[in-house]
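Need fresh eyes. Consider my entry:
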Amino acid sequence: MKGEQGFTLIEMLLVLLVLMTVTGIAIPSYRAFETERDEQRYFELLQQDIYFAQSESYRSQMPITVVFREVSHSSEVVQTFRGALSSRKMPKSIQLKKSSNLKEIHFTGNGSISGSGTLNFETSAGDKSIVVHLGKGRVVFSE
């Protein structure tokens, strides 16, 4: 049986099968890539939020805290009397692990850290951590 362009029904079905196979492989790969890209973007913005919190605490001479909220699945930069300076939703693929001994990063009015510890995150690409060192406000991101 010939179609309008001279292709048989079997040839058209084979082309359709190949297209469906390629699409079936490409879509899950794209979703994984998109999830990883969203996670990477979140951690880059989080790093900028932490640097902003530290510089703003130094500038304003007021304590500022970066808080990780489990209920709203977000992180916020909070100043004591002004409230939230910024808020950012975490991608659903990122979870703050229970093994973290910090739930927030607190900068004093001179830009130093008031409590040290580690924030551990579970992501689709593996675990990531943020190590907060006591003193001068050194915060290290690692994978």
Notes: The mean pLDDT is 84. The chain is about 35% helix and 30% strand. The first strand starts at residue 64 and ends at 69. The beta strands are 64-69, 74-79, 83-89, 95-96, 104-107, 117-123, 126-132, 139-142.
